[in-house]
Amino acid sequence: MSRAQDILSQLDLSPAEAAEPFHLKVGPVGLSVFCPGDLRAELVGYFHDALSDTPGETRVHLLPGQALPAEPEWQDWAREAGKAGRKDAIYGLGDGRLIRKVRSGVTFLQAPGVAVAFGPLEQNVSTVINFINTQVLNICQRDGWQLCHAAAVTGHGRTLAISGLSGGGKSTSILRMMDLEGTAFLSNDRVLVRAGRPPQALGIPKQPRINPGTILGNPRLRGMLSPARRAELEAMPAAALWDLEEKHDLVVSEVYGAGRVRFDAPLTDFWVLNWARDASEPTRVAQVELASRPDLLGAIMKSPGPFYQHPDGRFEPNGATPEPGPYLAALDGVRVCEVSGRVDFDALAAEGRRLFDV
After folding, report:
1. Choosing a second label site near 233 at 20 to 30 A (CA), which of 217, 268, 312, 341?
2. 270 by DSSP, 3-state: which?
3. Does 165 score more than 80 pLDDT?
4. Under a CB-based contact definition with an 8 Å cutoff, are residues 146 and 192 in contact?
5. Contacts from 17-24 at CB under 8 Å and sequence distance 24+?
6. Which domains does the chain have, with CATH numbers?
7. pTM of the full structure
8. What is the DSSP letter of 181?
């Protein structure tokens, strides 16, 4: 018995197997999710834009409340530059890997043909959603797609992805593009890109998680906050509001209407936010040669993370960083622009209207 199968034998899959699975289709990837209890209903509601009647080749098992009889010797997973605190821990199994979310205690078993989450799942639904979406990312990366830290929107024959440092405004920017008639939401925080003529983009079914500053700055979104909370936030200094971390889930179909989500499209444009709140120069969107701007490419590239197993069976090494070459090849033919100057979402929305010709 392999070490991954040994871990699997210590868990009880029968509650998940007894529940009716739900199926997801995202671009070329099909998943079947086996989940008991109320968690299933919550996930079905969340993933409604990706639901399918066809069983997927990849099976995901969710086991709320279960735990291993003995804890392994966890190793902390190195976080990306600029990130502080312990988030993930790993334990290698040779043919598989255990991953633990340090704060919540949610644990995952990842191996070829095995994707299992167990622990306090019902109290950490966002973590479960991310795990399901990670299976889409893993499958596509093994097939040659490159993972970008970006949001994206598509419509009128163009698809725009936007990257930037965390908290740089990419979610706010992409939602301003969603205010344009005829656009569709493609992805919030992860975009896969692949070389082609034209290059291709693929999103995942992850609803935007936005902070109060994004909500207050867009009249369409202000109803997400109670009048009392809006008043409290509006009384805060602008700098404090920008830095406030208070995530709210935005359900695209509820805010923008049905038919406003699409997961795949040809990629035409990529903007990298390199602006600043204290800049005096006006906002400027200018085309660049990405090969000569490693700083901008660094904002686009995203590590596959501890869940990723390469086609040859190796798991992503701890502390590894992405290689630029495959990204430059995947983005060949995409018009890449740097957004510089001061942070001005109205100016960026005007650039978006010109780009999408609306």
Report:
1. 341
2. strand
3. no
4. yes
5. 17/61, 21/55, 21/59, 22/47, 22/51, 23/51, 23/52, 23/53, 23/54, 23/55, 23/56, 24/50, 24/51, 24/52, 24/56, 24/132, 24/205
6. 3-142 (no CATH), 146-208+250-356 (3.90.228.20)
7. 0.93
8. T
